[in-house]
Amino acid sequence: MTPRPRSGARAALGALLALLFTGTLVGALPATAAAAEDVGTEEARVPSGSGADAVELDTTLYLPASATADEPAPAVVLAHGFGGSKQSVADDARDLAGRGFVVLTYSARGFGSSTGQIGLDDPRYEVADLSTLLDLLADRDDVLLDGDGDPRVGVAGASYGGALSLLAAAYDDRVDAIAPQITWNSLTAALFPSQTGTADDATPAATPQTADTGVYKRLWAGLFFGVGSVPTGGLLDALGGGGAAEAEDGEDGESSGGAAPASGNAAPTLPFDPASVDPAAVEQALTCGRFRADICAAYQSAAASGTLTPEVAAVLDRSSPAAVLDRITAPTLLVQGTEDSLFGLGQADANARGIAANGTDVKVVWYAGGHDSQASERETAELRDLVAGWFDWHLRDEDDPARGEDPGTGFEYPAPTGLGSGLGSVQGGTQSVLADAYPGLDGDRPVQRESVALDGDVQPVVTPAGGTPAAITTVPGLGALASALGGTTVEIPGQFAAFSSEPLDAAVEVVGAPTVSLAVASPSGSATLFAKLYDVGPDGARTLPGGLVAPLSLTGLSADPAAPTEVTVTLPAIVHRFEAGHTMRVVVSSTDQSFALPAEATVYSVALAGSGNGGTALAVPTVEGQTQSAGGTSRWWWLLGAVAVLGLLGWLAAVLWGRRRRRVTSAVEPDGEDVPLRFEGITKAYKDGFVAVEDLSFEVRRGQVLGLLGPNGAGKTTSLRMLMGLIKPNSGRITVFGHEVGPGAPVLSRLGSFVEGTGLQPHLSGRDNLRLYWAATGRPAEDAHMEEAIEVAGLGAALDRPVRRYSQGMRQRVAIAQAMLGLPDLLVLDEPTNGLDPPQIHAMREVLRSYAATGRTVIVSSHLLSEIEQTCSHVVVMARGQKIAQGTVDEIVGAGGAVLVGLADDGETERAAAVLSGLPGVTVEHTDEGLVADLGAQTSRAAALEALVAAGVAVDQFTPRRRLEDAFLALVGES
């Protein structure tokens, strides 16, 4: 019934499919005790439709023990989200059944085990299917009836299921109450939005629902089509062999209508008759998967052109409740999320206005979540109770003791905070705000708007060819994750105009969609733009509430920047508190990676309406209400108390730990400046028992270039991560310049690192990338030593060209220079020569040597042993998490192995070979280079040379022939 909270890190695709498309609360909280003990189930396949559109719907009926022929109960139909099935709402069904409702769940046509093709909530198919299910409920004697063939029934669902509940109430007057959640009003306006023109500003989130044009929501549409385009039973139907139902029967061992199984040496029997194959049907099944052909064609048209054609609009409008809201008389609970870039608050606003215009009871609830962010456990429990309470009041008889209190027709929204959305934040906190009505629905109490003055000059806005590079605001379905990664968006320099307020004298709580007037000129007379409202703190930190943007598709514009066209823009509807001292900044950009963009490059002119130098105002909606504490039961007070106690204990622990850390930090090792890095008995083991590093000890002296070597899985990366304070060892101690290392240790400011990729912005120059990186550290610009790092890295004049034009070697040099900013005393590099050609590797080798020559220390982890041999002065060799050798490169290479023997007289070659062959374990080989003796493990080089001299052989050359690679392989093999 409500968006499901999920715990733990999951694969991104899994999160999209389970959280975004199903839009349901699947097992978020345990069902009630009654649900667990007193609810039975009945499985059935229900036929629906006729002719070519006939399907079988896979259903499950949840029956509470209290529902009998003598005491019939009201019913609830639960519809699932897009990409889901009846299993997606199973736990919600058990919860409602535990409260005494007869609950029917089913997989919509084209989903789960139901047959047929996806009609996208088409009234002819999906809505008709739901009416068929109401007929089924009307035939049961344990379901409360309002009349012959008329069950007392409510319908609930999220996203795809939410739109179905609205359409069902419009087309079937037997529906007595609905609770649609995070769903659409106009699918056309949702997928082709353009928030321009005048909207009814009497309600908080009123947003223009453009019908004839808009900016194509490319990524969201692609995700929807992708999840429904996998061929299933439709392909078998096209081949003439039956659909999903027959396939399932066959799996159960029953006849599926095909030929008998092959036996003996008979040829295997195909599940279809090749002669009956329809090539056109097969092509449609492979191309469109489970979608009906008209929907598939509409998507392909939109994806190819990025424009809204009449044919595409006809398909989307058919599946939109907008046109039939005047038919809805069932009391409606509208639940919408504030973190939703797919179906924003404006969609629920339009539904509320359309339904309330009939005199129908409407209650509006906004919560902190949506398609971009999972609801919290608290939100989930409260929304589940809210939906159940709505059905209790509107479906039960007046004398039913379980009816509960009247939920009313008020408005509820999360208490605004200045926090960004995302993991670890508490958008909406633990409180909600209640108002006695959704402002503007009755026409007598319109929403209040506060005026905030903006300022800014006329600004050119560049649209790049092909729309690349594009600004990044939110990732469809993962907006919370993107926001959690610093809450940062990416605006491309030159591609946006910005208009800001003065720092606010007092906090402003925005509840709804702000509006602003712009003046725009375009050489072509049209423009595609994206407007957004940032919260900018006194330190310059930016927050984009909800990661939401307002697409603008503008036509009929003036081509003269001196006489621009004024347009009214509705910004995204948000719930956000702009604190005192913060500024509101309206940004208008030409690109956004989530939308289809113009292919032609051009330059727009954007200004505030009213004057060429600014002077217009931002109108922000505010809603007064009563702040309520979280939770509807006393358990939340206990939880709140527990949290407070835990918080106090945590604070005390932090204080004590901080004191301990300060004592440890003050105990600097006396040789710290001479030993930049020391590992002492470091061990790192994981919960599954895997030991990544075991009893690792070594030290690095100032001016050394240390190579960290080892095969995959040796523990090199884990060691570096512990060195940088990213993970903690289980035992042992790491010190940097005599100070113990831990997360956030101040001494880490003396360390520079380059690990796993350059992370450079391709549209910026190398110099701008370096400046941007240093600015992000918050340290003074003069401390960067920018020119010194550039000189050491040997970047040259190319530094001022865009990074996208750089070779791989140049990118690596910029990344090394980035790590060198501030001239850290300890430089840690992971695979710095990865992907470079030999000349580039040689140049990088010189960079590292020259840096160490300044008295600093470099640590290099690499798999290129020959480069370590030529670059590093010292080596630590690891295998299986342990150190197996340490020393200078010469010491590692020179321990045993082969030597090249050069003789003063070539005539002595045979005699020298005889002398050496007589030594224990020595073998001799004649090569083009000369005589090579493999000394093995029993004879040292000194003993071999002494034997030659004693035999009177004149030795002119006696040098180790083994390379670091040979030593490495020998050491690893021995380990």
From TrEMBL:
TM region positions: 636-657
Domain ABC transporter: start-end pairs: 677-905
GO molecular function ontology, one term from the record: dipeptidyl-peptidase activity
SMART domains, A to Z: AAA, PepX_C
Assigned keywords, A-Z: ATP-binding, Hydrolase, Membrane, Nucleotide-binding, Signal, Transmembrane, Transmembrane helix, Transport
Annotated region described as Disordered, given as residue ranges: 241-275
Top-level taxonomic group: Bacteria
Keyword Mitochondrion included in the entry's annotation: no
SUPFAM superfamilies in UniProt: alpha/beta-Hydrolases, Galactose-binding domain-like, P-loop containing nucleoside triphosphate hydrolases
PANTHER family: ABC TRANSPORTER, ATP-BINDING PROTEIN (PTHR43335:SF4)
Protein name per Swiss-Prot or TrEMBL: ABC-2 type transport system ATP-binding protein
Native source organism of the sequence: Geodermatophilus aquaeductus
Species classification: Bacteria, Bacillati, Actinomycetota, Actinomycetes, Geodermatophilales
